[in-house]
Design goal:
The complex is a heterodimer.
Chain A (H helix, E strand, L loop, with lengths): L27 H4 L6 E2 L4 H4 L28 E10 L9 E6 L24 E5 L5 E7 L4 E3 L5 E3 L2 E6 L8 E6 L18 H5 L4 E2 L10 E4 L2 E3 L12
Parallel strand pairs in A: 2-11, 2-12
Antiparallel strand pairs in A: 2-5, 3-4, 3-8, 6-7, 8-9, 10-11
Chain B lengths: L34 E8 L9 E6 L27 E5 L5 E6 L5 E2 L5 E2 L2 E8 L6 E6 L4 H6 L9 H5 L4 E2 L6 E3 L2 E2 L9 E2 L1
The chains are: A mainly beta, B mainly beta.
Chain lengths: 238, 191
């Protein structure tokens, strides 16, 4: 066994992620752990992680409008951005997985039964791998809002689920990307479970006219920031 | 420094996006020494959680990672076909299943040795962030007692919540139930 070696450590930044127990989101009442979590030092298993850069990508994995024989219905959009760490360093070769409702706000899922149409040409799942500069791009359909049973007349703002591995187990993140100026934000307990307003805003994409494709698709930009490393003297060593 | 992107729940329709071919196979079926780890994910009322996903990450059988931040350098994964990551959505009964091998022990700071362990992320509707736990092995009593993470947990019930159980009558099968809340709440980590 090696007895002495240097490992990176990742900064803990309390106050960004939502409290697990957020009673306005009712499902947390029976699912949020209630004991204080035990601080886990960052050791080998935590600072490593799956590097999925050449993972199981298939044609059209990053174009959700082209995964079927016919065209998906709805507002065609590009969703693009960079995956970075908190020090602004791009994270290359990182798997990005997304899933979403269709233009009518319906998921292609056996548990989604509200009376909005299913689009036979839209599954709503996609994946991409980041380039050397951390960038990724999806072509998809703008998802619709949909009702849910959390409280009377509750509606989820339009959103796309994002899942990222980063480079280390401690960087793993699942989040949701929202669209600018959605009038449903005020009443959504999931969006508002993030207590810090600035942090909440970081889940909202921006309309990107420069990347909007003329006579084809509106573009939205969504950068995703994963945890950064503690500065350590070892990093400067060869 | 840039602000982190906050976490949000996977919601109930995670299966559309978090699919992974052969996700539960950290090693292929038929691998010598393979162990099946299975269990149920429960909420605070003891109700199985049928819309969750369990992910596992671990060293290979020799205690190595294929990763540039492992200062011991890279080695061919052992056994052949080992891929480190496991992913299993819970079924209608809240059950998950991972096919893997016991990871090797790992060096820790100050010359300590970590017992064989698997890091686990749990995602579900109603979890606004993943929760993290670890699986330890029941046939490693001495190593578990010396493990710097496990031995630092003072509460005996919490400590034992991290050790998988032999599944009576089934060789090569370990049981690891996860209780999100309640009297049996599993020990979870702040990573």
């Amino acid at each position: 066994m090696v007895s002495d070696f240097a490992l990176p450590s990742y900064r803990r930044e309390p106050g960004v992620h939502p409290p697990l127990l957020s009673p306005d989101y009712r499902s947390t009442l029976t699912r949020a752990p209630l004991l204080p979590p035990i601080v886990l030092p960052h050791m080998l298993t935590e600072v490593t992680g799956p590097l999925l850069g050449n993972g199981p990508l298939a044609p059209y994995d990053n174009d959700l409008t082209m995964q079927h024989t016919g065209e998906a219905i709805g507002q065609r959009i590009l969703v693009h951005g960079k995956v970075l760490d908190a020090d602004g360093r791009p994270i290359p070769d990182a798997l990005v997985e997304i899933w979403q409702a269709n233009a009518a706000g319906r998921y292609r899922h056996h548990n989604d039964n509200w009376p909005a149409p299913v689009d036979p040409n839209f599954t709503g799942g996609g994946r991409a791998v980041t380039q050397a500069d951390g960038s990724y791009t999806f072509t998809t359909i703008k998802p619709g809002a949909y009702p849910w049973k959390n409280n009377p007349n509750a509606w989820r703002p339009a959103h796309i689920h994002f899942s990222l591995f980063g480079r280390a187990f401690v960087q793993r993140l699942v989040t949701q990307m929202y669209f600018p100026d959605d009038p449903l934000f005020f009443q959504d307990p999931i969006f508002n479970s993030v207590r810090d307003e600035k942090a909440r805003r970081r889940m909202v994409s921006t309309y990107d006219h420069e990347s909007t494709k003329e006579e084809w698709a509106l573009a939205f930009r969504f950068d995703i920031v994963l945890r950064g490393r503690d500065a350590t003297p070892f990093e400067a060593s060869p | 420094m840039t602000g982190l992107t906050p976490s949000q729940t996977v919601g109930p329709f995670l299966h559309i996006g978090l699919t992974w071919p052969e996700g539960e196979h950290v090693v292929p079926d038929g691998t010598p020494g393979a162990v099946i780890i299975t269990g149920c994910l429960y909420d605070g009322n003891g109700v199985p959680v049928s819309d969750g996903v369990i992910e596992t990450w671990q060293a290979d059988a020799n205690g190595r990672f294929t990763h540039p931040d492992d200062p011991r350098g890279t080695a061919d994964p052992a056994p052949a076909g080992f891929r480190g990551l496991g992913r299993s959505a819970t079924d209608k009964d809240g059950r998950y299943r991972i096919v893997t091998v016991k990871p090797g022990r790992l060096p820790a700071p100050d010359g300590q040795v970590q017992a064989s362990h698997i890091d686990v992320s749990v995602f579900a509707r109603g979890l606004l962030d993943r929760v993290v736990t670890r699986i330890y092995f029941p046939d490693e009593a001495a190593a578990n007692a010396a493990d710097p993470v496990l031995s630092a947990i003072g509460d005996e019930r919490l400590r034992s919540s991290l050790v998988a159980a032999h599944d009576a009558g089934q060789d090569g099968v370990l049981r690891f139930d996860i209780y999100l809340q309640g009297d049996h709440e599993t020990a979870f980590f702040d990573v």
